[in-house]
Write a structure and sequence with these properties.
Length: about 120
């Protein structure tokens, strides 16, 4: 693998867990106040890392799954937001997301980072 690879970062959150329950319990004014802090913080993170962001990605919506048998179902998973970044190593890619506003202000609970194979 090259020393300057591409990595898919997927922010995760349990949409039925305590962080989301707390978010849903906020009043509209409280949510707006958090967003007034959180959105500029995310934009500042993006600007600070613009040289390594390969694909901005974005929030992920409701999920449908199709099985090998062709059955379509609605599912809930942990996938919340995604982006692709460039880094010298897998560890360096992971460290980019330490203290990210999606986890410190918004209700994401982690970021899963994986190499995009063949994209180097």
């Amino acid at each position: 693998m090259s020393t300057d690879g591409h990595y898919l970062a997927v922010f995760t959150s349990d949409k039925t867990g305590p962080q989301w329950q707390a978010w849903y319990a906020l009043t509209e004014a409280e949510k707006a106040a958090k967003q007034a802090i959180g959105i500029p913080a995310v934009l500042a993170w993006d600007e600070a890392h613009r040289d390594v962001i390969v694909h901005q990605g974005g929030p992920l919506g409701f999920t449908k799954r199709i099985s090998a048998a062709g059955e379509v179902t609605d599912v809930v998973n942990l996938l919340t937001v995604f982006m692709v970044v460039r880094a010298e190593s897998h560890e360096a890619a992971v460290k980019l997301f330490e203290g990210h506003p999606h986890m410190t202000i918004f209700p994401c609970d982690g970021v899963e980072v994986m190499p995009v194979l063949g994209a180097d």
